What we know:
Blueprint: H1 16-28, E1 33-45, E2 48-54, E3 61-66, H2 68-71, E4 83-93, E5 98-108, H3 111-127, E6 145-150, H4 155-167, E7 172-177, H5 185-197, E8 204-208, H6 223-230, E9 236-239, H7 248-252, E10 255-256, H8 260-267, H9 271-305, H10 307-310, H11 314-355, H12 357-362, E11 367-370, E12 373-374, E13 386-391, E14 394-399
Parallel strand pairs: 3-5, 6-7, 6-8, 8-9, 9-10
Antiparallel strand pairs: 1-2, 1-4, 2-3, 4-5, 11-12, 11-13, 13-14
Helix pairs in contact: 4-8, 5-6
Amino acid sequence: MSVADALPTVETPWPVSILAGKIRDYIDRLGSVWVEGEITQWGVSGGNVYGKLKDLEADATVSFTIWSSTRTKIPTDLKQGDRVIVLLKPNYWLKGGTLTMQVYDMRHVGLGDLLERLERLRTQLRSEGLFDVGRKKALPFLPHCIGLVTGKDSDAEKDVLRNAQLRWPAVRFRVRHAAVQGDRSAADVAAGIRELDADPEVDVIIVARGGGDFQNLLPFSDEALVRTAAACSTPLVSAIGHENDRPLLDDVADLRASTPTDAAKRVVPDVAEELLRVQQASMRMSTRVTALLGHEIDRIAQLRSRPVLASHTWIVDTRSEELTRYVARGEELVGRHLERAENGSRELAVRLRALSPQSTLDRGYAIVQSESGIVRSASTAPNGTALTVTLADGAIDAVSTGARDDGLSTGHDASSERPAPAR
């Protein structure tokens, strides 16, 4: 049994060449395969191309080599950022101990395929409500601090800063530089959005890039980036600057600007325009107040010119005759009432006098009283009884001499009564 066939042990280890040969043989058995990915590195040296191919979704990258003989057979417009399908074969280099992917064919992924994938993702995100107008947040009228995610030293950064400061010089920016093209751009931009969203001083976030072709803008349609933007609690403005086939970030953002310059104009108010609006509003208010005061002055003048307010004696003048009638009527009614009361009093007086004992006394009668009361019978006043005789004009004392026998005391004829003799 040869050394290569025996299993290695501590006593009988394999030489490096045997291990390397076995790795090469195993890799050779894989053969050629078609692979789809994005070119993230493309360098030409000595007629050969050395580059890297990144998975479209997972974080996986492989290096590849295109020999000059193969390069003449593939499209000449291939470059970094393109999505391609590649026919390659893994090769293990014994001398260097490295694994390379030798390219035998490379083609652009059809634009229709990319658009179809993009449309499927767009439909999915729309069904989840990420594009709904109701979930979009309103931008603040005057942001004190603006977060900006853009490429370092890019024209987009300069446009946003310059135009914003021209419109409102006091505005502040917090810039987060990120890769806006290439394999790491989607993750870098998403990280920038999360960082600025966590900053409590940032009032609004602008993601800016100065346009580009369709494939260069594909990172801004990355699902992870789009979902990060949708979850952002700070108002987000997308300023990618691509009118046709715009990326999905434009649809999920709270506001889409056509260019970075447009984003600055829509996020930051113009101080000159605002001052003019304040002046116009002040003039309108002054005009309205002046008109209102004039209207009220006219109303007061009209009220004062009315007869009811022109003379302060109008109430007495218009009511004097009526008041005179009321006074005369009152006097008449009071006089009648007093007259009726006087007549009634006189009638009562006459009746009272007629019923009074005094009237009887005035007719010549007298009232005889003893110590025991009024003497009603002669038998109650025997001889020697002290009596008091009340007359019409006074009273006299008398002494009874007893009953008389002349029949006057029998009381048979009331009309024959005479005043009792007094002694």
